[in-house]
From TrEMBL:
One of its GO terms (molecular function) is pyridoxal phosphate binding. This is Pyridoxal phosphate homeostasis protein. Its cofactor is pyridoxal 5'-phosphate. InterPro entries: Ala_racemase_N (IPR001608), PLP-binding_barrel (IPR029066), PyrdxlP_homeostasis (IPR011078). The modification N6-(pyridoxal phosphate)lysine is found at K35. The lineage of its organism: Bacteria, Pseudomonadati, Pseudomonadota, Alphaproteobacteria, Hyphomicrobiales.
Length: 219
């Protein structure tokens, strides 16, 4: 199967999952995760109408996306990987959405840069639902206080919550936890689900899914 066929498969799977969950068609945004793939590998996805892309490294994204966004209108770029404060300026300039707001220091750096650049990004707080020590994200119990800090002290609008469940676990309970945290804290959107579990994520209320290898092939 080529990229267009794989992309169509993913789109159809999402449509079916929306239908099965009794959700309106088109209620889930597909974020195509293009990390490790170069501009030439990404172009066929853009030609097939894909407009929302995710990258996990600022440096890598800066090396390929400026030429791609110059070629096509309406591309939306999302940072889904950890951000270092010394890359905040570059990230704010390049991305439309940052899904990996995961600590106070980076929330402050993003707030400062948005002000400086006069640019408002859409932001997601990453929650470490599995409390994994090697994984980024705010602990579920700390999420209400962190959201309060972002909103009240830093003046940020938090559009959604994002999580990456532990690889070896059933993702359902993690998706349910993220959904509950969002509802309890007045957060609208849920970024959850990757190639292996995006159908499950749609059933649990994902408003966007981040799908890489099922579209671009293995990395
Ligand atoms: C790489 C990555 C994805 C996509 O993973 P696939 O299994 O290839 O679909 C999704 N989310 C994050 C945060 C990633 O780093």
């Amino acid at each position: 199967m080529d990229l267009k066929a794989r992309l169509n498969d993913v789109r159809e799977t999402i449509l079916k999952a929306e239908k099965d969950a009794g959700r309106p068609a088109g209620s889930v945004t597909l974020v195509a995760v293009s990390k490790t793939f170069d501009a030439d590998a990404i172009r066929p996805a853009i030609e097939a109408g894909q407009r929302v892309f995710g990258e996990n490294r600022v440096q890598e994204a800066s090396s390929k996306w400026p030429e791609l966004t110059a070629e096509t209108d309406g591309i939306e770029l999302r940072l889904i990987g950890p951000l270092q404060s010394n890359k905040a300026a570059e990230a704010v300039a390049l991305f439309d959405v940052i899904e990996s707001v995961d600590r106070e220091k980076i929330a402050r750096a993003i707030a400062t840069e948005m002000q400086k650049q006069g640019k408002r990004l859409r932001l997601y707080v990453q929650v470490n639902t599995g409390l994994e020590p090697q994984k980024a994200g705010i602990a579920p119990d700390d999420t209400p206080a962190f959201l309060k800090l972002c909103r009240e002290e830093l003046g940020l609008t938090i559009e959604g919550l994002m999580c990456i469940p532990p690889a070896a676990e059933n993702p359902g309970p993690h998706f349910a936890l993220l959904s509950m945290l969002a509802a309890e804290n007045g957060v609208e959107k849920l970024s959850m689900g990757m190639s292996g579990d995006y159908e499950t994520a749609v059933a649990f209320g994902a408003t966007s899914v981040r799908v890489g290898s099922a579209i671009f092939g293995s990395r």
